[in-house]
Amino acid sequence: MQFSESWLRSFVNPSLDSEALSHLLTMAGLEVEEMHPVAPAFEKVVVAHVLSAEKHPDADKLKLCKVDVGQGDPLQIVCGAPNVAAGLRVPCALIGAKLPGIEIRQAKVRGIESFGMLCSAKELGIAADASGLLILSADAPTGKSVREVLDLDDRLFTIKLTPNRADCLSLSGVAREVAALTGASLQLPAIEPVVASATETRKVVLDAPAACPRYCGRVIRGIDAVAATPVWMRQRLERSGLRSISAVVDITNYVMLELGQPLHAFDDARLNGAIHVRYPAPDEALLLLNEQTIKPSADTLLIADEARVLALAGIMGGEDSGVTAATRDVFLESAFFAPAAIAGKARVYGFSSDASHRFERGVDFTLQRDAIERATQLILDICGGNAGPVVEAFTPEHLPQRPEVILRPQKLASLIGVDFTAAQIEGFLSKLGFIFRKEGNAFVVNPPARRFDIEIEQDLIEEVARLFGYDNIPARPPQASAIMLDATERQRDAMAVRHAVVACGYREVVNFSFVDAAWEADFCANTSPVTLANPIASQMSVMRSSLIGGLVANLSTNRKRQIERVRVFEIGRCFSHDDQGEPVPGFAQPTRLAGLCAGTALPEQWGAASRPIDFFDAKADVESLFESGALRWERASHPALHPGRAANAMLGGRCIGVVGELHPRWVQKYELVTAPVAFEIELDALLQAEVPAYRPVSNFPAVVRDVALTVDHGLAWQSLQETLRKAAPALVSRIELFDVYAGKGITEGRKSLAFRIVMQDTQRTLEDAEVDAVVASIVAIAEREFAAELRR
């Protein structure tokens, strides 16, 4: 909700500056989302009285004006505004004035000296209208600063209200909060019943009393519908985000902002018979004020007369019964609609309104008569006319029930951690305007009709905490006996994994969980994805079963912006059908880590030659996230990846993920130019980390031997390496592959694998004989298990 600070301070004016008031409201639960001045800074702009406006001798569209700025002799100013005329009062920027983006200097315009500039609203930075000069009221004092006349030092507050605080969707509601928080005096507008000077009435029938238990209506005859809205009212409306339409409509909007009660005005001459609040008959239609024709559903509440539908109750009026410039008699409506009857209805028809926003959250059900009296008085003051008596249809048994709520001081102290005296609690409840009585130590509170959020004891405790100030509640650390737990296998959390991936040069992204069905078909070969009953867009109609599609879309977006080197990752849930799914039966929702890298392996630099990223770069990144040597790799077949450049990551004999180059088909389809490399790993597997075990560091030198073995070309080197590691004597600390060769000197159908064998003892220096024996035993194992041959 947006409002003017000066309007608020006309109701309650605490001794706080704007920043302090903003902080106070935010800490009390009315979050000030934005606060900014009405107008940008400028100076030396005053009210000018145009004495004459003659045609410029050398220009058809310019006028030579004489203006009085309160400095004695009139100033000569050349002006090109089409609406400049003698007798107007307009803003005048004097020589030396600094406006947004311009400084005013004495100048010659078509050969004639000009000593200032007459200003439009756009030139002052207060509106976008640049079609003509900003016309001020006829009683604006000549020579006075425009900032003072238009209250341009005012500030606009935008507060972000939670749905339970509908009582603050009005200036009166916010003012009550400020008064309660600061103790400043509250001065709301006095509302007196308007004495009826006419006898005309219109009967009201509540055909749906549960949805509308109270409806007030009044006929006002002989108004001037084209009367000008007063400047002060128009200004307050515009600063609250509403545009001025006409005097009658502006008054209904003004009362809604002031009191929180939406109203509507009908052209009484267009009505036929009694007013009915009812549900629609079959095939009824309505043309709304927004020029949208709808067929209301059976559960949409309507306002109608004896002949036709007039309005969507609590949402928007109809075009055919609205007030126009020709209107002379109006029927003014002020009603209470049950929140359940209005909630969600406007969104069903594809729009929203200020009225529905308030009614679906809850409007004070005792406010309707006061609101119609306030609006009536404003209409009579501005538009004239004669008001008839208020007709009220009322079914009290259908009004919301406000049961008493008990507040116990001991419960208050246990939840907040502060012991309040009975006098303090009474003070808080009185400041909030709550009616209460004491029964023993407890307070029995009657929640006011405007506070739909006060239903249980905890609601009252929250109110006390707000007024006391969250900043004033002491922060006491919990006290408990702590026991050091034994180390467990789960040593990492998701944040530690994030840090590890970022250390590899990746940047985290967060993508939608709902994706295009084509992604599921392309990247997962998934013909039965989890579909959404009500997708937010046609291209986001299913739930993802893989994170790869979102990362490919991220890459495509970056490529379209000429960003070639991309390294991104995401941690998120995937979704698929599973009868035993957890936590929701019927759906599996595993959390995975996926990454994608494209472009060059290293950023452009002089110290290393440029080369494109490849499978082994991504494989190394994945291996760095696990214990050294923990993963095994097997050839993979994955719908998203190149069939010859992809591998499954195996951990403990189970496939926990995949790494590979994107399939050429998808590189072409998604216009990626070059193929990226992607990986997707189960997060749970990454979170499992063994407790580190101590191993003594040897003070004796290591012995290194290199052995090259020729094996069958189809043999996976990892199988050979693992076998050698398991069978190697205890002296062997590492066996690592460092070279693969096939070609000249190697029998066709075979390849050479070169291993580095590192041996070391923690108690002594190894002798050549025992080193040779270990190497010989390792070679013998390779020969026996894999038909390997020692390459000479």
Automatic annotation (TrEMBL):
Catalytic reactions of this protein: tRNA(Phe) + L-phenylalanine + ATP = L-phenylalanyl-tRNA(Phe) + AMP + diphosphate + H(+)
Residue ranges of domain FDX-ACB in the record: 698-791
Cofactor(s) listed: Mg(2+)
Annotated GO MF terms: ATP binding; magnesium ion binding; phenylalanine-tRNA ligase activity; tRNA binding
InterPro entries reported in the protein's UniProt record: aa-tRNA-synth_II/BPL/LPL (IPR045864), B3/B4_tRNA-bd (IPR005146), DNA-bd_dom_put_sf (IPR009061), Fdx_antiC-bd (IPR005121), Fdx_antiC-bd_sf (IPR036690), NA-bd_OB-fold (IPR012340), Phe-tRNA-ligase_IIc_bsu (IPR045060), Phe-tRNA-ligase_IIc_bsu_bact (IPR004532)
Single GO BP term: phenylalanyl-tRNA aminoacylation
Domain TRNA-binding: 39-147
Keywords: Aminoacyl-tRNA synthetase, ATP-binding, Cytoplasm, Ligase, Magnesium, Metal-binding, Nucleotide-binding, Protein biosynthesis, RNA-binding, tRNA-binding
EC top class named in words: ligase
Cofactor stoichiometry and binding remark: Binds 2 magnesium ions per tetramer.
Superkingdom classification of source: Bacteria
Family matches, as CDD domains: PheRS_beta_core, tRNA_bind_bactPheRS
Record note on quaternary structure: Tetramer of two alpha and two beta subunits.
Recorded family membership: Belongs to the phenylalanyl-tRNA synthetase beta subunit family. Type 1 subfamily.
NCBIfam families assigned to the protein according to its UniProt record, in alphabetical order: pheT_bact, YtpR
Name of the protein in its database record: Phenylalanine--tRNA ligase beta subunit
Organism expressing this protein natively: Georgfuchsia toluolica
